[in-house]
Amino acid sequence: MGEISGKVAMLDDQREGLAFGLLRNGITDVNTGKKDQVEGAKGAIQELIDKVNLRFYTNDYQHIADGSIWLHQAWGGDMTAIGYYLPKGTPVTAVSYWWPQDGRGLMGNDTMAVLNGAPHPVLAHLFLDHVLDTEEAFLNMEFTGYQQPLTEMTPEAVVEEELVPENLLSAIVRQDQFEKGFLQGPLSAEGMGIWETAWSEIKAT
Amino acid sequence: MRNDGAIWRNFAIPGVVWLILFVVIPAYAVLAVAMGQINSLLQPVPQWNPIDWNVGFVKEAFTSVVPGGTYWPATRNTITYVASTVVLCFAIGYPVAYYVARHAGRRKGLLLLLIFLPFWVSYLMRMLAWIGLLAPDGYVNQVLGWIGIGHTEWLSGNPYSVIAALTYGYIPYFILPVYAGLDRLDQRLLEASRDLGANPIRSFLRVTLPLSWPSILAGSVLIVLPMFGDYYTNDLISGSPHTNMLGNSVNLLVQGGSQKNLGAALVLVLMTILAIGMLYYLWETKRQQEKLAA
């Protein structure tokens, strides 16, 4: 393990990190509030810390691009935009993104909501319409690397629009992944406490 | 009749107001959160009234920083890194301050300017520059390769890199008070030691070094205080939990979620450790002043 020591990183995010630990232990309920399961996930990550001198970052795109990390748990949206961060002359084919072929991987997505009693609900809905407009979504992806959950944003479509290179197509979320994958959802108040305690203990290892 | 003393004493008012607003009240707020409760949504509820203080989190924090506790590795790292940095700052900074104060002559102003030039660049930017220098293909490894030492992974959770970065970041703060102390050293005392037959080394060891001790302490206090709470140097240079300092743990706990009480309690632990250091500094300074007066 000496060669890869310090070259492996996990997202510095308790939900992403501990969910990986859960999956590693065969627990597919990635929103579990059971202490023993979360403790098990903590143990799995601590084991990895000892084995490969695991590091924690949220700027995965930067560390992969500059070569300081070779293997990084990464958000798909960060990887689709990695071409912008790679050193000049480095082909984007130098990076690849792995996702379970059977579609049973960890899923997470940011959401938007209009609060009950919001002062300008019509404007808020217009904004949501704007964000979910197909043309705008492609434009947005060009800037951020992240896609909106639109059926039109298929892997083929984003390649055709030259938004994502073919070797990184696995970073594009497909509709069927929401059915097969393990979607992160809200935790109970008690569960949240268990997750936070476990994560802070991992980080204090 | 005018009371001149009262007029001058009023000059302290802005400082006192400043201290109350930005030291006493925030410190009390930290105390109130650390001694507070947690609501049903696991969010911290500060307890402002001392009668209702809950000492559970503070107890947990103090027991977690001793060997075997959750935050012992971070505490051990903090103490080791800070102590190593102070030693390095002394080893590098003292000769620099000595040279500038005693031998720089007309170049004194220019040298001081050069020492403090890094202050013109933010700490964060200076640390980011180190990442470039210490990167696998950075200049440090290139130079090491030329002289045959070989390639080193400086940024892969290497504690030496964290200590080096801390030293680089804080050394100007050490040099300034040491320089000020050496610069105002009474020349007649040095001349007396030479007249009494001491050679330059003996004169330095028996006169200059002891007399500059208060300024060394002042410089150490100036760098130790911020270093104990430092977290971003480690975040940028290492990113590994193996090199985490207490500041990293506090940062994680207070950023959000249900563990703000514990984070505030860890701040109290840090404050206690630093208070012990400060008390020693005050005691030693008073002792030195009494010695000089005698």
Characterise the protein shown here.
The complex is a heterodimer of chains A (205) and B (294). Chain A is mostly helical. In chain A, 44% of the residues lie in helices and 6% in strands. Chain A contains 9 helices and 5 strands. In chain A, the strands form 2 sheets. Chain A has a 3-stranded parallel beta sheet with strand order 2-1-3. Chain A has a two-stranded parallel ribbon with strand order 4-5. The longest helix of chain A is centred in the first third of the chain and has 18 residues. The radius of gyration of chain A is 18 Å and the shape is globular. Chain A starts with 7 loop residues before the first strand and ends with a helix. The relative contact order of chain A is 0.17. The mean pLDDT of chain A is 91. Chain B is an all-alpha fold and 294 residues long. Chain B has 13 helices and 2 strands. In chain B, helix 4 runs parallel beside helix 8 and helix 4 packs across helix 12. Chain B starts with a helix and ends with a helix. The chains are: A mainly alpha (205), B mainly alpha (294). Chains A and B meet through strand 2 and helix 9 of A and helix 12 of B.
Q: How are the strands of the biggest sheet of chain A laid out side by side?
A: 2-1-3
What is the structural class of chain A? mainly alpha
Strand segment tally of chain A:
5
How can the largest sheet of chain B be summarized? 2 strands, antiparallel
User: Quick check: average pLDDT of chain B?
Assistant: 89
- The H/E string of chain B reads HHEEHHHHHHHHHHH
Tell me, what's the shape of chain A?
A: globular
